[in-house]
Amino acid sequence: MTISNSFQFPKNFLWGGATAANQLEGAYKEGGKGLSTPDVLPGGKVRLKVLNDPGFDFKLNHEKYTYPNHDAIDFYHRYKEDIALFAEMGFKAYRMSIAWTRIFPTGEELTPNEEGLAFYDRVFDELLKHGIEPVVTISHYEMPLHLVKEYGGWRSRKLVTFFERYADALFNRYKNKVKYWMTFNEINSSLHMPILGLGFAIQEEEDHYQPTFQSYHHQFVASAMAVKKCHEIIPDAQIGCMIVYLPTYSVDCNPENVMYALQEERLFNYYCGDVQVRGEYPAFIKRYFQEHNIKLDIQEGDLELLKENPVDYIGLSYYMSRTEKKDKSPEEVGQGNILGGIKNAFLKTSDWGWEIDPLGLRISLNQLYDRYHKPLFVVENGLGAYDKVEENGSINDDYRIDYLREHIKAMGEAIKDGVNLMGYTSWGCIDLVSASTGEMSKRYGLIYVDKHDDGRGTLERKKKKSFYWYKNVIATNGDQL
């Protein structure tokens, strides 16, 4: 069933899909690639435990764990087939990432790896052949494992230099092929899971705050340097930041809970955005640093660099909202979503317990645009669910269609509200390995891949019912949902 809408998407709206290199490429040792942080993250629900384990040693243990990222869905060898399917859906844009270790295997090399550069040349050429704009994240929950073991990840200021060299190599190589860039994926998520974004585990004996916020400063500086270089090398390009956004609701109208929700929202949703978009540390963070005894090592010229090189647009992922109250009982803690909060009685949940809140996306877009007045780009949004292949080979994922439809409606309403929205790339447009749980069974795709949690599968691609639905959405520019 299709439904016509009263709202209208811009004519140049960037419809498409999104993935990440470490979740779909596979071929983790091919083409001169070095080991990265995701290469040592185990598969299955044990991954969530590892992501919060202060003792995690970043070592492979094949006797104890499986590593689905190593093979993933083999996009490395099947990219032409997959891009042809994206083109069949009518994609205008494909948000993807580059594996840092394909370009600089250890992160310390002075010269980039030609095999890695050539691979992405082929991918970009294939996309452009089909009229699909690449939207490239420079670092998506990965970094060279060597930099973790040698320097402690983003704890070290030296990583700014390594990242700058990496970004410089990308901009110079792909300046005629890529016009949309982002620096760090979901940069603010490291407040909860620094292993993914910052490359270290908080040790039991150390304070959580100091290393996290110092590492953030290093990333902010590296991001600003990348913005500066991008503007110099590719003047007609746009480069953005990327945050995971969770509008935060107070559980009730008790002012104590409202204030608590506000404080949580500012820290998680706006801290990183303020630095990268406004180019300065927000006023509210000064008190937070004082109360948590955080003292940043800010070098001469850092603040000027941040101020002079704000991002051009804001990329965001939206999956859920968050509900908070000041004094949570032990039973309520962790009852909400993956990034905290308590249960919202008004919302349904996915197969993995993530609360489904389409109106929250409209709220998010309005909040972000009101605060920053910069173009927004929804670069991740989707539903992880169990999919069943019927006897006739069909996958009837009406639940995914319902989810996407309601969120696209919310975007349309936000545009009517006055929000400048550039595009929408649904997450996991093809099934891939889940970042949070390391599972294949948590499927987001509009394209099914025959690969399972135990490693079995032919890797055959199948079009789900949502494939045809989304194709029509794009063909009608969101008019028919």
What does this structure look like?
It is a single chain. With 481 residues, the protein is an alpha/beta fold. It has helices at residues 21-24, 46-51, 75-89, 100-103, 114-129, 145-151, 158-174, 194-197, 209-233, 255-278, 284-291, 302-308, 358-372, 398-416, 465-475; strands at residues 14-18, 93-97, 133-139, 180-184, 238-244, 248-250, 313-317, 322-324, 348-349, 355-356, 376-380, 421-427, 447-449, 461-463. Helices cover 38% and strands 13% of the residues. The strands form 4 sheets. It has an 8-stranded parallel β-barrel, surrounded by 5 helices. A two-stranded parallel ribbon has the order 6-8. Strands 9-10 form a two-stranded antiparallel sheet. Helix 13 (358-372) runs parallel beside helix 14 (398-416). It is globular. The N and C termini lie close together (8 Å). The mean pLDDT is 95.
Entry summary:
The protein is an alpha/beta fold.
Which terms would index this structure?
single chain, 481 residues, alpha/beta, 15 helices, globular
Q: Order of SSEs, N→C?
A: EHHHEHHEHHEHHEEHHHEEEEHEHEEEH
Q: What fraction of residues sit in β-strands?
A: 5-15%
Overall morphology: globular
Q: Give the CATH level 1 class.
A: Alpha Beta
Sequence of strands across the biggest β-sheet: 1-2-3-4-5-7-11-12
* N-to-C CA distance: 8 Å
Unreliable segments of 5+ consecutive residues? none
Give the helix/strand layout.
Elements: E1 14-18, H1 21-24, H2 46-51, H3 75-89, E2 93-97, H4 100-103, H5 114-129, E3 133-139, H6 145-151, H7 158-174, E4 180-184, H8 194-197, H9 209-233, E5 238-244, E6 248-250, H10 255-278, H11 284-291, H12 302-308, E7 313-317, E8 322-324, E9 348-349, E10 355-356, H13 358-372, E11 376-380, H14 398-416, E12 421-427, E13 447-449, E14 461-463, H15 465-475
Parallel strand pairs: 1-2, 1-12, 2-3, 3-4, 4-5, 5-7, 6-8, 7-11, 11-12
Antiparallel strand pairs: 9-10, 13-14
Helix pairs in contact: 3-5, 7-9, 9-12, 13-14
